[in-house]
Design goal:
heterotrimer; A alpha/beta (451); B mainly alpha (304); C mainly alpha (311); A: D-Maltodextrin-Binding Protein, domain 2; D-Maltodextrin-Binding Protein, domain 2; globular; C: MetI-like fold
Amino acid sequence: MKHRALLIVAGLIGAVTLVASLSVAAAGTTRPEAHAAPVKSAAIAPPAVPNAAALKAKYKGQSIQFIGDAAVGSSHKRDLKLVAKFQHDTGIKVNLLPHPSGSDAAYAQLARAFGSKSSKPDVMMLDVVWPGAFAPYLLNLKPKLGKVSKQFAQGIVQNDTVGGKLVAMPWFGDFGILYYRKDLLKKYGISAPPKTWNDLFTQAKKIQDGEQKTNKNFYGFVFQGNSYEGLTCDALEWVASAGGGNFIDNGKVTINNSKAKTILDAMRNQIGKITPRGVTSYDEEGARNVFAAGNAAFMRNWPYAYAANLTTPVKGKYGVTVLPHGAAGHSVGTVGGWQLGVSKYSKHKDAAIEFVRYMTSPKVQRFNAIFNSNVPTIPSVAKDKQVVKTNPYLTPAIANVARVTRPAKYLKTHYNEGSKDIYQGISQILNGTPAGSVLPGVASKLNALVK
Amino acid sequence: MSAVAEAAKTARRPVSRSRVLRRSPVGRFLIKLPFWLLIAAIFVYALFPFYWAIRSAFTPDSEQFSTPIKYWPAHPTWANFREVLSTSTFQHALINSTIVAGSVTLFSLLIGSLAAYALGRFRFHGRSAVLYLMLSMTIFPQIAILGALYTMINNFHLYDKLGALIFSYLIFTLPFTVWVLTSFMRGLPGDLEEAAYVDGATPLQVFYKVLLPLIAPGLVTTGLLAFIAAWNEYLYALSFIQSPDKYTVPLAITTFVGKSGSTFQVPWGQIMAATVIVTLPLIAAVLVLQRRILAGLTAGAVKG
Amino acid sequence: MSTVATPAAPPRRRRRGSKLQRRQTRIGWVLLIPALAVVALVAIYPLGKTIYYSFTNQEFLQGIEPTKWVGLENYRTLWHDTIFRTAVWETVKFTLITVSFEFVLGMIIALVVNSSFKGRGAMRAVMLVPWAIPTVVAAQMWKWMYDDVYGVINDAGVRLHIFSHSHAWISEPSTALGSVCAVDIWKTTPFVALLLLAGLQVIPQDLYEAANVDGASKIQQFWRITLPLLRPAILVALIFRTLDALRVFDVFYVFFGNRPDTQTMAIYAQSTIVGDGHVGYGSAVSVAIFLIIGLFVAIYVTVMRVSGGDD
C-alpha cells in the first residue's frame, strides 16, 4: 500500500511534467512581443557606452552584480538589453539579478546583504525612500558623479543626498497625477479639469449624480486609500498641496497643523459620497480597475496607469493633468521611482560607478522612456519629442509640477516605522475619525522617531 | 446469522410512525431536502471561486473588471494562457516546485513514518516530550525564524538553491506528518505485530510489511497535504531564492508584469491562467488516484 | 476477531525483567533519530536564536546600534503594548470563528465522501480545490470578489436579492473580520476534511453493521461509534488548524495591509521585525505568540484527554 502513496506522487509529478513540456512545446518559436503594447520597442536600441575604449582598458574583465528590476516582462527585457550593451562595449561583466517582487522583500534582501557586509551586490536599485535608511552602507557618488548630477531633477537629487553624501543616482522617477474622463467632462459641460480640491469634489459629484442614473457602479473619485505606503504618498499630496507642509519639514514634525486637518477632514467627508466606501482598501491596481472599467470620473495614480489603460474600455477617453491643490497651496506630485546605488563593500567600486553613470545617462534614460515608459529623472530628456510621444503625460505642465518627497531623509532608518504611523493615522481618519483627534498622536510618534 | 434470518427478524419488529414517514417517498424527500440544500451550499461556496478563476483566466485584460459583470466571458481568449506558458520563468517554476514539493513529501513521509512507528508502537519514557517538541518546531510565526534560517542557509551554502527550500519546508511538514501518522499507528490492533514477531520478523520488517500498508490512508493524506503545503509556500521561497530560473510557482506567479512595464501593474488574467494551469492537473491527478485508493482501502484495511 | 472492535493500545509485552523494556526503549529512540536530527538541524538554531534575540535590542539593519542584552525589557514593554493586546484579541476571535466552522464543515464533507452518497465523487473535488490554490493568489482573488464596485459577490448578492445594495465588506469595520473568516474557512476546510476522512476510513465497517442490526439510528451511530473513534484525528485536526489560525498572515495582509484595527499577531510581528526593524522586540512578540498557541494546545489536550499525555 505504500506503493499507492508513491503512485500518487508519481502521478502528480507526471501530470506537472506533462504540462511543463506542453508549455515548452507551445512556446516553440519566439513570439513578437507587443500585440497590444502601446510602447513601440522594436525601433530603439540601447545607446552605446560613451568613452567605452577607456573603460575597457581600465576595467575589462571585472565583474559586478546588479540587482535590477522585476524578473519578467518588459522591465526585465530593458535591463537585459542595457546590461548586454554595457558588457559588450566595456568588457565589464555584469551579473543581473532581478529583485524580489514586493517592496518588503526587496528591502529585506538589501538589508541582509548590507548587514553582512557582503561584497555583492555592487550596484542595486533603491526605492526612493531607502537612501536615508541605507546611507551608512552606500558609497558617496559625489566625487565621481556630482557634476553629472546637476542635470537631474534637483528635488530627487536632494532626496538622495544624505548628510552631504550623494548616496544614489536618480534612475527613473514617478509622481502622482490626476486622470480624468475627457468625454464625461464634455458631457456635463465642464470646461476644464479641476484646479482645486473643492472643484474636484463638485465636478465629481455632478458627474456621479448624472452617471449613476444609468450606471449604479459609477463613482466620482478613486485613489489609493488602503493602509499601506501608497496612502502616505496620496496623503502627502493632499496636505502639501493645501499648504500643510510635508509631514516633516527641515527636521521638524509639522503634520499636526490646521491646514492639514482641514484637507484631511474634507477627504474623510467624501468617503462613500463621491468615492466608493471600499476606497479605503484600494491600492494602485484597485483604483485603476475601477477607472479602467469606466466606473470613475477621476483617479489619482502613477504614470504607469497611462500605458496600462490603453488596453481597457476607457482608451481614448481619458486625459491627465496635475493634481488639484488646496486654496492656500499649489499642485504637487509625490515622488516615487527608483535610484541606483553602489555598495561601499563592493570590490569593484570604480567599475560599478561607471555602470551607474551609463545607466543614468540621458541617452539611456531616453531609451528607458521609449522602450519601457519609465519616467526620466533628467528634465531635458522629458522634453524629447519621441519621449513625449510615447509618454503623453509628459506635457510641460505636468512634467514641471512641483515634486514633494516623503520624509525619508529625516526618518532615516526609522522611515518604515514613521510612514506606518502616518498611514495608519490617515487610514483611521478616512474611516471616520476626525483628523483633530488623530493627528496629535501621529505627531508625537513621529517626534519620537526623528529625535 | 444468515441474511435471510436477519431479514425475517427485522420484518417482524413493530414499526414506529417516524419509520413510516422515513420510508415513504415524500418523507424521505422532506428529510433529505435540508441536507441537499446544505450540500449544494457547500458546493457553491467551495467551487464558485475556482469557477471565477477559470472565467477570469479566459477573460481578456480589457474586460476583467468591467461592470456589469459577465459571468461568462464575453470574448473568451487563450491569450493569457499563451503569455503565461511562454515565459521561461514559469516553465522552470513548474519543474522547480515539483522537485521541491516532491522531495519534501518523500522526506516527510519517510522520516515521519519511522518516528510514528516509534512513538505509536513502542513504550518508553519521553514519547510525549518528543511529540510536543515536534509541535513546538512549527509554532513560531514564519517571519520570526526567517532571519536565523537565512543565516543557517547561508552557512550551509544553500542560498539560492532548491535545497534551501527542501530544508526549511520540513519545519512545517514534519510535525503534522508525525502527529497524524502517530495517531494512525496507535489505532492499530496489536495482534498483527505479535504474530509477525512470533514468525521471527525484525522490527523494521514489521514496520515495512505489516504496519505501513495498514496506515495507508494516513500516508496518502499527509503526503497530499505536505505536497500542497510545500507547493504553495511563498515567504521562504521569496527570501531564499534569488535567480529567476530557480523560482517556484508562487514566486513566478507574483512576478508577472503587465504590458505597461511597471511593477505596479498586476496582470490579473495571466495570474489566473497560471493558477488554473497549476491547479487543474493537481486536482485531476488526485481525483483519479483517490478513487483507486478508497477502493483499495476498504478492501485491504483492517483485516479481521 | 474481537480486537477489531476496539483499537488497542500498543502491544503489551509482559515485563520479563527490564530487558525487553530496555530493548523497546532502544529501538524506539533509534527509530526517532532521523526525525530528531531534522529537528536539531532545522529548528533548534532558528528557535533558539529567536528566543535569544527576544532578550536583546537587535535591529534588522545591523551596525546602527550595537546589540546588547536587555533582559526582560522587551517583555515588560510587550506587557503594556495595547496594540499587541488588540492584535491578540483579533486573532483569537478569528481563530474561534474559523476553527469552529471548519470543523463542522470538514466533518460534513468527510462524512459525505466516506458514505455511499451519490454526490461523493464531486465532493472529493470540493475537498481539494480551495486548498490547491496558492494563498497569495486566493487572497487577492477574494479581495476583488468582495469589491464594492466590480466585485462578483456584491453583484450576485444584489441580483439574487440577498443584499439590498453593495457593501464594502473589507472596508467596513463591522464586516471586515467576517469577510476574512469566510476566505480562510473556504481555503482550509479541505485540510480538516482530509484529516477527518483519513480517520473515518480506518473505522471498521463491521461496527456500523453490528449497530444497524441492533437498531441504532444513524445519529446514534455517529455519536457512539464515529466520534469516539475519530477522537485522535479530531485532536490533530483541531490542534494544527488552531496553530495555523493563530499565525494567520497572508489573507489579512492582502485585505487590510497594516490597518490598525484588524492586525493579527503575525502581522504585528512582521511589521515589527521587517517594517520597523526591531528584531529584538519582534522576537519577544514571537515568543509571546508561541506561548499563546501553547496555551491553546494544552487546553485541547486536557479537554480531549487523549493518550497524547500518557507515558
